[in-house]
Specification:
single chain; 626 residues; alpha+beta; 3 domains; 5-stranded antiparallel β-sheet; 26 helices; 10% strand
Length: 626
């Protein structure tokens, strides 16, 4: 036998063999030669015909011949990808692995027709290795749109929330922390506002984020732009305190941080000469999707909430969620069996389907479709700002370029390839392994700690683990997730009222949250009215548990224009009232007949005072007896 390269000999009449050989050719390229035994003079390399019919043979230039599973593993080990070399390492060193894989190989060889159909069903008919150039192009522009929405939405509210005359001024936070801990606190509050926490700088961060988002959509200097977007949004999230503590804020930061290593290393848009995306980052994104969906299901069960355990949570959800849509109003009136069925389907999508992410191409595509379906239903029934858009965007990472229709791929590739500025001088650089490997290790380490925490399993972690975890937590770029751990079964709404005489009380009207019984549930997404959202959380606890609420009342009594701009209606346009109080009501959706006859979407019952009567004593609040 005289061969220059390793030679894999297979059964040319076997459809299963032909399918996988065609795929392996793309992986091993010129490092391995392939030939059907029917084209060789038998016996070849001393191997009789019957042996070739039973299993593939790998013939090496030095005369050694390997068979069956070991031949497959040695063939794949010629590729540079470590994941392809791992099976051979396990074959040689892991006890029982060789015996198990050889047993599986024999079973498959005896049922080639069946497994040939299964292979085509799971992986499709395309032999080429998956590519992600178009997927990345769509993903980065979609991320730019979501960043644009996030910065613009926040920009319209930033002064009233954390400006100098806002509810929780960023400058006061920075000064208080600096006075107590000095500049050592930077590691716990990583924000550019350490340089300047003025209103002008807050607006600069929002303006800069808006401009950078447009540059990302256009494709200019994506790595630098993505880093600045992440730094700007992190800076705002830190000083935003309660108003930027939502799960979609940290999800955007984690998504944006990974995108720094997903984007092509170039200055100008040049689709034709971009280096291929790193598979390591593709799989880190898939791991993020898995954690986002799976942890959302786990926390519901680990919380012990009976409404989730009995599949009755959705009978409350549409009515008690922070900002329902008018579609949510109708969904609330679906029969009980439909709500229970929906809860069961949701658990199937959140707890079972995520494992398909780690399967073949078509299983990942099915998982993508299921996740998109769930996000669409959430989008239609509730206002969750850009969360559903971001979750749907992440699902694109489950697809490779072959998922797009062929005509679309050709047309888009033609259009996009014309939109280039770098000419042929683009080097097609990509992140080196010495960057991606440590990045992957840190993310997997941090994210697994968060995933274990979702099960509420307590471990006595070593001190170095806790210190390492605490070091990365402030950057909000590897997180735990899980919405609605415990279902709220009653909708409590805080109505703030003002008075000049202590007898006649007039309510402040918010822009979006329920108040007026005849105002239908509004559609506000992808914008997030953060004060309206925070009022929903405040109603779940007491006024003592929400110190920011006192600051909000103080600003209303002072007549702060920035804070009043966050509201929909100010009943005291001539000047702030003398007294202020907060009343809590129990709100419920009306039924269809009441809506038709009275035009009311809500009904409510007074529960009492959330906050007793307040007035000003200088620049401070004075609590009066109720």
């Amino acid at each position: 036998m005289n061969v220059k390269n390793p030679l894999l000999v297979y059964d040319g009449d076997c459809g299963f063999c032909g399918y996988w050989i065609a795929r392996w050719k793309h992986w091993t390229r010129e490092k391995v030669d392939y030939v059907p035994y029917q084209s060789l003079e038998i016996p070849f390399a001393g191997v009789p015909k019957e042996a070739f019919e039973k299993a593939v043979k790998l013939c090496l230039p030095d005369g050694r011949v390997f068979s069956a599973a070991e031949a497959v593993f040695r063939t794949l080990a010629t590729t540079p990808a470590w994941i392809a070399r791992a099976p051979l390492w396990l074959y040689k060193r892991a006890p029982g692995f060789a015996r198990a894989t050889e047993f599986i190989y024999r079973r498959v060889a005896r049922n080639r027709g069946l497994f040939s159909s299964v292979s085509r069903f799971l992986w499709g008919r395309r032999y080429e290795p998956p590519e992600y150039n178009l997927t990345r192009w769509f993903f980065l522009r979609g991320l730019g749109v979501i960043y644009l929405i996030a910065f613009l939405s926040l920009w319209t509210q930033i002064s009233g929330l954390v400006g100098r005359n806002g509810i929780l001024p960023a400058s006061e936070l920075i000064e208080a922390v600096k006075g107590r801990f000095g500049y050592e606190a930077v590691q716990y509050l990583p924000t550019l506002c350490w340089f300047d926490a003025s209103d002008n700088f807050l607006h600069f961060l929002c303006f800069g984020g808006t401009l950078l988002s447009l540059l990302l959509i256009l494709g200019f200097a994506p790595v630098l732009v993505l880093f600045l977007l992440w730094a700007f949004y992190l800076s705002l999230a830190v000083v935003g305190q309660e108003f930027l503590s939502f799960q979609w804020d940290i999800l955007l930061l984690e998504t944006g941080f990974l995108a720094i290593f997903f984007a092509p290393l170039q200055w100008l848009p040049n689709f034709r000469h971009e280096a291929a995306p790193s598979l390591a980052v593709v799989w880190l994104y898939r791991w993020l999707v898995f954690r986002l969906i799976f942890m959302s299901g786990v926390v519901k069960l680990s919380s012990g909430d009976p409404t989730w355990h009995h599949f009755t949570a959705l009978t409350y959800h549409y009515e008690t969620q922070p900002l329902p849509t008018w579609i949510g109003w109708f969904a609330h009136h679906f029969p009980g069996w439909c709500q229970q069925f929906s809860a069961g389907a949701m658990f199937a999508i959140e707890l079972i389907v995520p494992f398909l992410i780690f399967g073949p191409r078509r299983l990942r595509a099915f998982a993508c479709g299921a996740f998109l379906f769930l996000q669409m239903l959430i989008f239609l029934t509730g206002n969750y700002c850009f969360f559903n858009m971001l979750a749907a965007l992440l699902c694109l990472c489950l697809l490779d370029d072959s998922a797009w229709p062929g005509s679309w791929r050709e047309k888009l590739a033609e259009v996009v390839s014309r939109w280039t500025f770098g000419g042929t001088g683009n080097t097609g650089l990509r992140w080196p392994r010495w960057v991606l490997v440590p990045l992957s290790i840190v993310i997997l380490f941090m994210s697994n700690l968060a995933l274990i925490g979702a099960f509420r399993v307590r471990f006595a972690w070593p001190n170095w683990v806790e210190r390492t975890y605490a070091l990365f937590v402030p950057f909000r770029s590897v997180n735990g997730y899980g919405l609605f751990r415990v279902m709220t079964t009653a909708r409590l709404e805080i109505i703030i009222e003002g008075s000049n005489n202590g007898v006649d009380w007039l309510p402040y009207e918010f822009k979006y949250k329920p108040g007026d019984l005849k105002r239908h549930p509004l559609w506000v997404q992808p914008h997030q009215p953060r004060l309206d959202w925070q009022m929903w959380f405040a109603a779940l606890g007491s006024v003592r548990q929400n110190p920011w609420f006192g600051r909000f009342c103080l600003k209303l009594l002072q007549g702060s224009p920035d804070v009043l701009a966050l509201l929909g209606k100010n009943p005291f346009p001539e000047g702030p009232p003398r007294y202020l109080r907060a009343v809590i009501y129990d709100y419920h959706f009306t039924d269809l007949s009441t809506l038709r006859s009275e035009g009311t979407w809500w009904t409510r019952q007074r529960r009492g005072l959330y906050c007793p009567v307040l007035t000003l004593a200088g620049d401070e609040l004075l609590l009066l007896k109720p």
